[in-house]
Amino acid sequence: MRANPISPSVDFEQDGVQHGHLKLPYSRDDSAWGAVMIPITVVKNGAGSTALLSGGNHGDEYEGPVALFDLARTLDPARLTGRVIMVPAMNYPAFRAGRRTSPIDGGNMNRVFPGKPDGTVTEKIADYFQRSLLPLADLVLDIHSGGRTLDFVPFAASHVLPDKAQQAACAAARDAFAAPWSITLLEIDSVGMYDTAAEAAGKTFVSTELGGGGTARAETCAIAKRGVRNLLIHAGILQGEPDRRPSVMLEMPSADCFVSSEHSGLIEPCVDLGSEVREGDLLARIHDVERSGQPPVNYCAKRGGILAGRHFPGLAQSGDTIAVVAVPG
Ligand code: CA
Questions:
Q1: Cα separation of 161 and 183, whole Å?
Q2: Which of 20, 154, 218, 310 is least crowded, fewest Cβ atoms below 10 Å from its Cβ?
Q3: What separation in Å is there between the alpha carbon of 222 and the centre of ligand 1?
Q4: Ligand 1 midpoint to CA 105 (Å)
Q5: What is the spatial distance between Cα 206 and Cα 173, in angstroms, rounded to a whole number?
Q6: Residue 64 Cα, ligand 1 centroid: separation in angstroms?
Q7: pLDDT per residue as tens digits for the range 41-93
Q8: Which residues pair with 205 in a beta bridge?
Q9: Spacing, Cα 228 to ligand 1 middle (Å)
Q10: Rounded distance, CA 90 to CA 75, Å?
Q11: Sign of the dihedral defined by the CA atoms of residues 301, 303, 304, 310, in that order
Q12: What is the 56 CA–ligand 1 centroid distance (Å)?
């Protein structure tokens, strides 16, 4: 296979702190011999495990970039054993545009793995993670939140995996992150995900959904910053005492956790995030916005549990996920 065109300005084998870029040549109208410059920081101290930390896989999710730009600035190599690789904004063009997907090629980073070295900009970034960064890593954390069209209770997640020893290692790392909620997910649409690529490579992988709505809150930024440090301590890479907080265990074991809309219109939330719901409870109503006097369409819980995710903000299209119910795990 072709070599990836990205060149890193950091040396992954060098001890100490290095701030640099993944430089991806991108010739365009406003920069003939230009490049996409993706910030990367490597902090290393001797031999040991490697953690690969990313945010901005989707460009409109901010807890990951906040936590990782902060960590890149403050992580002290004297307190490390091993290596931490940080890419605060993985889909950098999307991040700069404040969009889920890349404004260059429309690429959704979490649907293009394993990527292509001679593909689109998004596919080239994915290929670099797939073939250059993932092989360096033992532990992989990808910090998500809901972006502009979803909002979640702040949770860390691990997946149901065929290899139960790997599943247990991922769950232990997720629990070490110590978000207020911890969820075991059966992924319903795993093709092309970075998660799937990292797990297929045998890595210990943790993801999160820490909030959403196309913004970040003080609470969710604090959860991300605390969780990253807890995870590095758990992995034996960072010295120190973890800041463990209580976490509620949940599962999303099947497709009936997800409620999607078959109508377009105005959403009226009937339950707030974190609330308990019973099977059949009204979750949301969708009002016709083209004429008044019409009855709304009711969307109800297909199973009991906790409302863990919801559509954001007020207008929905047919096919949107409007509610996610997780069950006590
Ligand atoms: Ca996301």
A1: 14
A2: 218
A3: 18
A4: 18
A5: 7
A6: 10
A7: 999 999 999 999 999 999 999 999 999 999 999 999 999 999 999 999 999 99
A8: 140
A9: 17
A10: 19
A11: negative
A12: 8
Q: Is the pLDDT of residue 1 over 90?
A: no
DSSP bridge pairs for 156:
182, 208
For residue 102, the 8-state DSSP code is -
DSSP 131: I
Give residue 58 CA to ligand 1 midpoint distance, Å. Answer: 5
CA 35–ligand 1 middle distance (angstroms): 25
Q: How far apart are CA 278 and CA 256, in angstroms?
A: 13
Distance 315 CA to ligand 1 centre (A): 19
**Among all chains, which residue has been given the structure tokens 């069950």?**
327
Q: How far is ligand 1, taken at its centre, from the CA of residue 263, in Å?
A: 23
Confidence grade of residue 187 (pLDDT, cut at 50, 70, 90) = confident
Q: Which residues contact 32 (CB under 8 A, 6 or more apart)?
A: none
pLDDT at 188 over 90: no
295: preceding bond cis by omega (within 30 degrees): no
Q: How far apart are the first and last CA of the chain?
A: 43
CA 217 distance to own-chain centroid: 16
Ligand 1 center from residue 57 Cα (angstroms): 7
What φ, ψ does residue 101 adopt, rounded to 5°? -115, 165
Residue 77 DSSP code: G
Instruction: State whether residue 325 is helix, strand or coil.
Output: strand
H/E segment holding residue 175: helix 164-177
Cα–Cα distance for residue pair 286/141, rounded to 1 Å: 36
pLDDT at 190: 87
Q: In angstroms, what is the span from residue 293 Cα to ligand 1's centroid? A: 37
Mean pLDDT computed over 238-261: 95
Mean of the per-residue pLDDT values of the chain: 97
Cα of 157 vs centre of ligand 1, distance in Å, is 12
Check whether the bond before 114 is cis (ω within 30° of 0).
Answer: yes
Q: Which residues surround ligand 1, an ion (CB under 5 A)?
A: 58, 144
Q: At 267, is the pLDDT very low, low, confident or very high (cuts 50, 70, 90)?
A: very high
- Name the residue among 206, 162, 207, 157 with its Cα closest to residue 185: 157
